[in-house]
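Table S2 (text version). Query chain:
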Amino acid sequence: MSILSSLTPFQLVLATTILAILISDDRDINEQNLIGNFLIGLGGIVIIIASSQQLSENQKGASRQISLKDQVQSLNEKILRLESLLGKPIK
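Corresponding structure-token output:
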């Protein structure tokens, strides 16, 4: 897939257009519809997989943020305890 990711958006459009013309050439309307619908279905499934993976990564990130918030709160509580032991604020 590194070839596709190295292309500019305009190069991708051009490559896709050329591929579509080559696939459609000498095929009747029913075959073109079948191939087109198959590719749309394939693309939809790839998008579902990618969005599911993204959701999973986002949820992991959110749980890490909660964990960081808990850690900050814990550190603040420890600082307050230290300040009360010392009798003065820590700067």
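Notes on Table S2: The radius of gyration is 28 Å. Residues 2-86 form one domain.
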